[in-house]
Task: structure prediction
Amino acid sequence: MVLRLRAFEAASLGMAGEDGIPLHRRPLKRAGRVNSGKRLEDLIEAASACYERAGIAKVSKVAVPIVHLRGRDAPFLATYGRKSSVDFQGFIARRGDRPAVPIAFEAKSTRGGRWRVDDRHFPAHEKEFLRLYQRWGGLGFVVVEFASAGRIFRVSIEDVGPAPSMSLGEVERVGTLLPQGGRYLLDYLVGLRG
Result:
């Protein structure tokens, strides 16, 4: 079954912008460091909605609570209430005798040819959370976008080494290239659905 939607339907489901352009076909905009992965996160959320409608998986973005520091009369000032665990959590649905599989993953994007995995760009508490998730029977991984190459990979947390960065070539060797477009927009569960 192929999902075909009109532009306004795709936009209302988060699969396309209000202009009807699918998220996986949007040109990359020059973004600040803080927002450089927003396009990737939007694409993952749209794919997650497709997975949920198909009964394959339920994956949600993890919200980080914000604490307001100033009242109504002062300029808006806030901070994060705690460290975030990871960007997304959920589970892959049960199939036959196979139980549901919990998953947790981080979304990272880079405009260059290297993915920075040092503690400044990929904090130690996030890596440890994903490793703990793996040890307890879930799947912990990172969805990494090399925006300049137009390629997105899934990398197991076990394959993220101690080096401060990984090149596109290194990620190609240890990761799984994710199909873009098509039925799920970004098939980040390719090979995991069973």
Summary: The first helix runs from residue 7 to 12. Residues 52 and 58 are 5 Å apart (CA to CA).
